[in-house]
Amino acid sequence: MAVPAGVASQRVADELRERILDGRLAPGTRIIQDELAEELRTSRLPVREALRILESRGLVTLRANSGAWVTSMDVRECELSYKMRERLEPLLLAESAPRLSDEDIDELEAIEDRIERTDDVEEFLVLDRQLHWTVYRHHDAHDLAAILNRLWDTTQHYRRAFIRLAGERRNWIIRAEHRLLIEALRKRDHPSAEQILELHIRRTRVELVNHPEVFAVPAPS
């Protein structure tokens, strides 16, 4: 039975998104449509549609007469993305925090316990995203959440680079900020939670800007 075109396109888009977010496809990598179609045992049409989906999410750049590339950022673009997160993410927290239950906050502490037990960068990235979006899970601001999901996706590579650069001292700071955020949420001190979150995001932005080597992309083959 043939798979509907829309379903096939979304399947390819999901697979490519996963490869980009987990670092298998780095910024600046060219995506060869024919090779991908053969690998995934599909036709070129779902691949083309999948690339358009990912272009709309900022993960792929389509260039006329050149093809598809994993989107890369320069320092200014990444800094702007983080400035947007600094301003918008506390707003999403404010939309969700009043509805967080004690069980939700217990779950946050359990996630943070797992973060503090791992020294694996990829596991940290998964858990860190899980922690933040558990904070936001009760929002009713879907357009805002969509913007922030896109910003999380498009900066994932640079967040990975930051964690690898961070070293134990800075990792300790990340964990301490998480604990302060959870404590403020448990106390229902939402204004403090918003401030802690803003500073948490800002510190990453400042660190990244101080490491321009993170933004180097491989030369085209």
Characterization of this structure:
InterPro entries: GntR_C, TF_FadR/GntR_C, Tscrpt_reg_HTH_GntR, WH-like_DNA-bd_sf, WH_DNA-bd_sf. Keywords: DNA-binding, Transcription, Transcription regulation. It comes from Amycolatopsis rhabdoformis. With 221 residues, the chain is mostly helical. 70% of the residues lie in helices and 5% in strands. The protein has 9 helices and 3 strands; from the N terminus they run αβααββαααααα. Strands 1-3-2 form a 3-stranded antiparallel β-sheet. A hairpin with a 3-residue loop joins strand 2 and strand 3. Helix 1 packs across helix 3. The radius of gyration is 19 Å and the shape is globular. The mean pLDDT is 92.
**Main sheet record:** 3 strands, antiparallel
Spatial strand sequence of the major β-sheet: 1-3-2
Mean pLDDT: 92
Low-confidence stretches: none
- Helices and strands, in N-to-C order? HEHHEEHHHHHH
Overall shape: globular
SS content category: mainly alpha
**What is the first-to-last residue Cα distance?**
39 Å
User: Helix count, per DSSP?
Assistant: 9
Keywords:
221 residues; mainly alpha
Question: What secondary-structure arrangement, pairings included, does this model have?
Answer:
Layout: H1 5-21, E1 30-31, H2 33-39, H3 44-56, E2 60-63, E3 67-70, H4 75-96, H5 102-117, H6 121-135, H7 142-154, H8 156-186, H9 190-209
Antiparallel strand pairs: 1-3, 2-3
Helix pairs in contact: 1-3, 2-3, 4-7, 4-9, 5-6, 5-8, 8-9
